[in-house]
Amino acid sequence: MNKRKFLAALPALVLAGTGCGDARNHAHAVYMLVDTSGTYAQEANKAQLIINYLLGTLQPGDSLAVARVKSRSFSEKDIIAKATFDVRPSQANAQKRAFRDTVDAAFRRVPGSGYTDITGGLLQGAEYLNETGAGTRTIIVFSDMQEELDKVTQRDFPISLKNIRVVAVNVVKLGTDNVDPRRYLGRLEAWEKRVVAAGASEWRVINDLQRLDRILAKG
Amino acid sequence: MVWPDNFAVSVLVLAVVAMAFLYAARAPMHSLIRSLGAALSGPLRMAARWLGAAAAEIHQRNKAVLLAQGRQEVGHRIEREFERLGALVTRDLQGYPALQRKLLDEITRIEEDYKKCGEVPPTPPDWTDAVTSMAKIKSAGSEVVLRVLEEINRSVNAIHDKAIAEYRKAYEERHKILEGFMPFWRSVDKNLAQVEKTVAELKSSVKGVDAHMAKYEQINAGTDKAQHALTVSAFTQFAISALVMLVAAGGAFINFKLIALPMSEMVGAGDYITSTLRTSEVAALVIIFVEASMGLFLLEAMRITHLFPRIANLNDRVRQRMLWIALGLLVTLAGVEAALALMRDLLIADKQALLQSLATVQAQTATDGWVGSIPTAGQMLLGFILPFALAFIAIPLESLIHSGRTVGGVLLMAMVRVLAFVMRVVGNVARNLSRLLVRLYDVAIVVPLLVERMVKGRLVGQQGRTRRRMADVDVDIERTHA
């Protein structure tokens, strides 16, 4: 809230007076997928770090949901916690505290899963985000982006992530990636293609957890 | 190219052909160029003339408005000076007859006392002649004479001592009378000093009134000097008012900062007016403007400012009522702001606590004690005071509006004059450019023009010879007749 904004508010008063308010929804909705499969389950404490950052950054009126990536992730049951913060800052702060407590409790007893259904998680996330009606929608995928599905689960069909930003965070290198780095790069490239083809507005990979501000920064 | 192999010949042929065409089209082309020049310069010059006339009209209107404003302002000032003068005369010179009477009494008393303390010379002793005669007596050692003389000496000394004592006593009394003068002198001095001071004040006020009257007369006469002085004064006022308004804007900004965040608690933080501007921020600004408006109405009701003549014309009872309503609303809003400032502090503290609890490294919470509550108290105090400070914005605002008319008028006139000048210059350039183009056109077809001149010259020569021959024939015929 700087002086420029104060000066900008003067003509905005006229706009408000004439009823020409901004009809767009300026709320931000974030859906965070946390991979709990295999060895990646050990990274759960880093996920909490990101969730805390999101809780500190999101504004009143924004939405946040945290879900697990399991063998089959297209289910509401996988959502650990979700909340649309109250428009009143004091209430929003109370909600954030409760949210943090819920997530902390859930991560204390996080069970590992045999397979990794990232696509199902993305579909569930897109559904949740579209329901919020927020102006800016972001799915954060906290995973190594190595999808592994059982034989029964069907995920090889086109998905829709229209107007959703997808941010892959902490995409760690697997043992095989170290042997042949092309596997890692190819995996990221394949995901980018798939996400962009699904209509996502942005694809971003953030491995440096010191640069968390880039998660919510557009463009 | 006519002959692609021979560039020079091709150019030459083209030039000759072009020259021929240009020569053939010379008269219409000259006319066209001149017409274009006239078409451009004519309207521009006309517009320049119109703008010049408009500038003169604006100048006249500005002058009329300025003089009317000045007349009104100086008239008010003279009225106030007269009121002050009246109050001064009533206060100080009302008691002047009593003061004069007192002074006269004191002076009379001093005069009487002065007369009393006049020195009365001691009467010359009658016996001095007798003493002189006695002193001439030759004693020749006569014991009788010696005794008589001694007796006389003793008596004279005794009388002398007595006379001296009486004389001293008389002086002492006179000194006492003179000493009694002092308080009267002081009183007279004090009263006269007071009279002098009052008269000096009166004189100064009268001088002020004289100066204002002189100014008023100049304004009434509509002199250039008065107009210039008023214009300069308006510019100064405008600059000062703008500066004060800038300071007030700073105050409004601080006020905005104080209440914008807590307003989100009241109207919510999710609605936006523009992409970056929340409704809560606009609501905060609205509150600030409402406070400024209440301040404006308050000062109007107090007749300090005169932006709304209708308020000034209200009867005293309604005006008083309006004054109290505006003051009540202002106090209420100031109270609301103080509460919002407190809420802001609480919200920030809550947010800080949340962020600390979310941080991986827990910060040590320092116990602030009473020192920690100083910013909160300061914010609340600011929240309460700023609305009242903003209320006074009405005074520079009025000044800005009044002087803005003059400043705006002068700037508009200058702009119109500059525009007129530019149009006149462009019009002249267009006209001269058309003349230049005509000359350049002739330069381009210089060869056919030379040929034309030569042909014309020869034709003129032949005509001249024919005319001379005819004249010779006429002379021969006349001679034959003769």
What does this protein look like?
The complex is a heterodimer of chains A (219) and B (482). Chain A is built from seven helices and six strands; from the N terminus they run αβαββααββααβα. Chain A has 219 residues and is an alpha/beta fold. Chain A has a six-stranded mixed β-sheet with strand order 3-2-1-4-5-6, sandwiched between helices. Chain A is globular, with a radius of gyration of 19 Å. Chain B is mostly helical and 482 residues long. Chain B is 86% helix and 0% strand. Chain B contains twelve helices and no strands. The radius of gyration of chain B is 53 Å and the shape is flat. The A-B interface holds A 1, 3, 5-6, 8-10, 12-13, 15-16, 21-22, 24, 26-27, 49, 52-53, 55-56, 59-61, 87-90, 92-93, 96-97, 100 and B 252-253, 256-257, 260-261, 264-265, 268-277, 279, 281-282, 285-286, 289, 346-347, 350-351, 354-355, 357-360.
List the keywords:
heterodimer, A: 219 residues, alpha/beta, 6-stranded mixed beta sheet, 6 strands, 41% helix, globular, B: 482 residues
Give the total of beta strands of chain A.
Answer: 6
Q: Which word captures the global form of chain A?
A: globular
Number of helices of chain B: 12
The overall average pLDDT of chain B, rounded, is: 85
What is the string of SSEs of chain B from the N terminus onward? HHHHHHHHHHHH
Content of β-strand of chain A: 15-25%
The gist of it:
Chain A is an alpha/beta fold and 219 residues long. Chain A has helices at 3-17, 44-57, 89-108, 118-132, 175-179, 181-197, 213-216; strands at 28-35, 63-69, 79-84, 136-142, 164-169, 202-206.
Fold blueprint:
The complex is a heterodimer of chains A (219) and B (482).
Chain A: H1 3-17, E1 28-35, H2 44-57, E2 63-69, E3 79-84, H3 89-108, H4 118-132, E4 136-142, E5 164-169, H5 175-179, H6 181-197, E6 202-206, H7 213-216
Parallel strand pairs in A: 1-2, 1-4, 4-5, 5-6
Antiparallel strand pairs in A: 2-3
Chain B: H1 7-24, H2 26-93, H3 96-116, H4 127-136, H5 143-221, H6 224-267, H7 279-301, H8 309-312, H9 316-358, H10 373-391, H11 394-444, H12 446-481
